[in-house]
Structures are given as C-alpha cells and as structure tokens.
Amino acid sequence: MDLTIVMTAASCNTARSIRAAVAPTAMRLRRSIYAASRFCGDRGRRAVQSGIILTVVHSVHTLEDMSSAYVSGRVPARYERLVTKQARAARTSKSDLVARYVIEKCLETEFPGISFRDSLSGREAYLTGHRVAVWEVLAVHEETNSVEKTASHFRWPRVLVKRALAYAKAFPDEIMRARGSETDTASVVG
Fold first, then answer.
1. Dist. CA 176–CA 181, nearest whole Å
2. What is the per-residue pLDDT across 92-150, written as a single tens digit (0 to 9) for each?
3. Rg over CA atoms, the chain
4. In angstroms, rounded to a whole number, what is the distance separating the alpha carbons of residues 181 and 10?
C-alpha cells in the first residue's frame, strides 16, 4: 500500500513540499532517515522512528512535456546571498530561480540576440536591445511572408528577424503560449 505525505513549512523546516511513500526495505529506510532528518529535523526523525518511512522526492520542475535533470554547482557565498535576495523578491525558491537563470543563459548563448524578461504572461523571449517580443516578430512575418518586409517593418537589419524566427522555430509551443496570453490580455484590457 502506498501512502503519500505532503509536508509544508508548517510541519517541517522547509518551504518545499516533500512527497513520501511507505518503503519496505532497510536500504530505503536508511535513506529516508537521512532525508527526513535533513529536511525536517527532529520531526522527520520522530516520524521515521514511529514507523512511517519517508522517501523524499524533490523535483525542481514539473514540466508535462519534458523531464528534468539535476544540475549542481558551487558559487561564492556573496552570490548565494544575492540569489537568495532575488528569489525572495521573485517569490520563488532559490532552486527554481537558479534553474531559470541557467536555462535562459544557455538559450541566450545558443540564440544570440535573444533575451528574456517578465511580461503579463510570465517570462518571454524578446530581441536584446529592443522592446519587441519574439512572438511579435513572428506575427508580422506571418502577415508579410518575407524576412525583408518584416525587417523593414521594424527598421531592423534582416539578421535580427532571422534570429527571432530561428528561436520561434525551435520553441513553437512557448511562442504560441506567449502570443496567446498577450493577445488575450490585450483584448481584455483594450
């Protein structure tokens, strides 16, 4: 029989929820005692000693279409304090914020000229140095059917339009989601 226990900050010393299941083997018991004591202090140890065996599962992301991987790194303490401050301001965990930073920096390196910012629909890709989102470039391109005409519309060099279109091609679901959210918000506001 499986048992799922969700602990929040009210029941243990962490803000993350912890999923647990009854574990039949001694090996899982040892890992569970360590994990419970690590995440929940004395409360976790008492739960394990009273016969509840916890197996801690921590997932940085819960993405439907993509599994996540654990990436670890060390930073000097002064940067950890900065991440803590920024995570608090963004009302997210340090882990989620660092994951977002890593993903966005990798994408900015892979797609030069693309950066990320907050918008009404969440984080969105846009052209660095411009106020135009990638989905907006795609929308104009769909109307003109020409890189030249799209570049002329924005008064940009063609290379910027090509970069936006390359990103849109690589991440069509993200672009459509951002486009839908922004156009839905604009129709409600306007």
1. 8
2. 999 999 999 999 999 999 999 999 998 887 899 999 999 999 999 999 999 999 999 99
3. 23
4. 34
